[in-house]
Amino acid sequence: MAKTHKARKLPVQQLTVLALCRFAEPIAFSSVFPYLPEMIESFNVPKNEVSKWAGITSAIFSLSQAATGIAWGRASDRFGRKPVILCAMFCIMCTSLLFGFSRSLSMAIVARALTGASNGNVGIMRTAVAELVPWKELQPRAFSVMPLIWTIGSIFGPGFGGALANPAAKHPNEFGKSRLLRAYPFALPNIVAAGFFVFGLAVGFLFLKETLETKKDGRDYGRVIGKLLLRPFNPTKPKPAKWQHEEEQSSSLLSHSRKSSTASTGYGTDAREDRKPISPTPPSYREVFSYQSNLNLLTYSLLALHSVAYDQLLPIFMHYPPQTDRSSNPDVNLPFKFIGGFGIDSDRIGLLFMIYGIVGMFIQFLVFPPVTRRYGVLPCLKVVTAMFPIAYVLTPFTALLPTPLTQQIAIFAILLIKCWAVIFAFPCTTILLTNSAISLRVLGTLNGVATSISAIGRAAGPAIAGWTFTIGVSKGYVILPWWTLAGFALLAAITPWWLVEMEGFGGGDDSDDEAEEEMPYNDDEQVRSHSVDIGHPPLAEHGEENDEFPIREGAPLDPQSLSKTLSHSSGAKHFPPLRRMSSPLGQRNNVGPGGSERLSNGLGQSRSGFGAGGSSYN
Fold it and tell me: What is the separation of C-alpha 611 from the centre of its chain, rounded to a whole number of angstroms?
């Protein structure tokens, strides 16, 4: 038999819809940073306490996210991915507006805490991507989409956040007459961010598919409306003829028969036979926390801790005044005892980070997918996690270079190393974490746990870095915070050596429908020699049209021939003979050693049940 292979393709449309839903979140998150110190000052906070309250405001966001991440994940496992994603987007939009209209420090902190508590979509969208793309060969490209969107949003968010903050004072001719913007000087960036959320909510409601197995077959009125809106732009398809409809029904019956027979015999099953079937009940925590999942969660939390801490500490280090006259300073004892930074301004720091983000965007989309497909996800993770401690150890020594230009070139080179490592590390960890789940039904909860744990790391990392930086500068050792982060990075580089790259949920075989398209019969006589004749009008009419399962009216029913025909249709190398079959149609027929029972009352009406040791596919 001739066999043709059909390459799997990414669900580009659904990934695009998810990306549009995701885009508003990094914009709302990162647009706060440029004006946060100015906003805190406007609440009559002393200047020497602004940095402290800015850190508290940022930390409360991560801690709130950690407190609710698991709840969002379990809600998505119970109610579905789509409704929870849309609900979380709406909550983030409202709490971001509340933050923009804050009139006091306490109100701003509460609003920021509520925004963090609403920010559970990172894990749920990651779960949706895993359910859309379960095949390992496509996961590197699929799982690079959401980090790419976050990078793009993080590049544009600070730009318009700083430009639109306090517009009445910065642009009095355009906004000076607005009573709203004079009373609420930091509302405009959040109003613009809310516009992105409204667009994302509309796109998600109209076009996003449900991916949770127990909810995906339900009626989705949003997608019904979306199809109606798009109908004028789509060519009208002719209605299928009657014989086509009968052929589809017959093919559905035969496909069900092949699935039931394959399941009952144990042949052609998925590569991960230990996976648990989908259940509508929420998973227990014992199901979520497997050994491999726990190792992945530890690696992920350590990555979040040291990576975010480095990104927040580096601007402080570059802005810190340089140390002069090191040769005559008794407090300097090279190569380890010294203090000082670059002494550059925020504009130059922002330029370096903008270039850093653009380079990361290209690595994310153009380099990461082909490299991980060629070498594997786990080997790439082992390599890049070893790059972090090297970059961290070298960072403080860039301040010893003689000129500002050489200092900035050196730190940018280190940033490129760190960029390469972080672009690979987080998606690789996400893929490994996804594939470590024992069932698709635990993915929402598992990714919710990952969101909570990583949020704790993002809150603890900057606090540890800031505390050690203060101690290091006071003691004359500016290397202290960087080498502390290198210690955490070294721990994160050790844990991947105990990880195992699991098979994922896609399996190694194509679906039955794909098999029908990819394995056509070239020898009609070979199939017709095993044809089964059943005196049932719809099946008999269909048998004259279909070469895959021809049925002729009037011939006796032969169980051995039916067994051989089903074996050819399913592409199995061996199909056990039928043990017992009775006719006429409408009586129960026991098929195969697995105990498969089928009750056929007519075309397309088939019911299967399995005895002990069997699997049920509905």
Answer: 37
- DSSP characters for 5-63? -------HHHHHHHHHHHHHHHHHHHTTTTTHHHHHHTTT--GGGHHHHHHHHHHHHHH
For residue range 483-539, list pLDDT tens digits in order: 999 999 999 999 999 998 887 666 544 443 343 333 343 444 443 444 444 444 443
Q: How far apart (Å, rounded) are the C-alpha atoms in residues 93 and 89? A: 6
User: Residues with Cβ < 8 Å from 491, sequence gap 6 or more?
Assistant: 302
The Cα 366–Cα 362 span in angstroms is 6
CA atoms within 13 A on the CB side of 23: 17
Strand order in the sheet with 605-609: 588-591, 596-602, 605-609
Beta-ladder partners of 587: 585
**Strands, E, within 64-139: which ranges?**
none
pTM of the predicted protein model: 0.65
- According to DSSP, residue 366 is labeled I
* pLDDT for 336: 83
Q: Please give the pLDDT value at position 526.
A: 42
Which segments in the chain show pLDDT lower than 70? 1-6, 48, 51, 235-285, 325-330, 346-347, 504-618
Res 393: pLDDT = 95
- CA 103 to centroid of chain Cα atoms: 36
Q: Are the C-beta atoms of 567 and 257 separated by less than 8 Å?
A: no
Neighbour tally for 591: CB within 10 Å: 25
CA distances from 254 to 168, 209, 528 (A): 70, 28, 16
- Residue 168, CA distances (Å) to 40, 165, 171, 188, 211 in order: 18, 9, 5, 10, 46
CA neighbor of 261 nearest in space, from 589, 604, 605: 589
pLDDT tens digits, residue range 23-57?
999 988 888 878 888 888 889 888 767 767 887 88
Compute the distance between CA of residue 358 and CA of residue 353 in angstroms, rounded to an integer. 9
The torsion angles phi and psi of 596, rounded to 5 degrees, stand at: -70, 130
**CA distances (Å), origin 441, targets 88, 165, 365, 578:** 20, 43, 29, 35
Angle between helices 404-435 and 145-164 (to 10 degrees): 130
Indicate the residue type of 160.
F
**For position 514, what pLDDT does the model report?**
40
- Beta pairing, strands 588-591 & 596-602: antiparallel
At residue 237, the pLDDT reads 56
Is the separation of the CB atoms in 12 and 139 below 8 Å?
Answer: no
As a three-state string, the secondary structure of 559-575 is HHHHHHHHHHHHCCCCC
Provide the pLDDT for residue 505.
Answer: 66
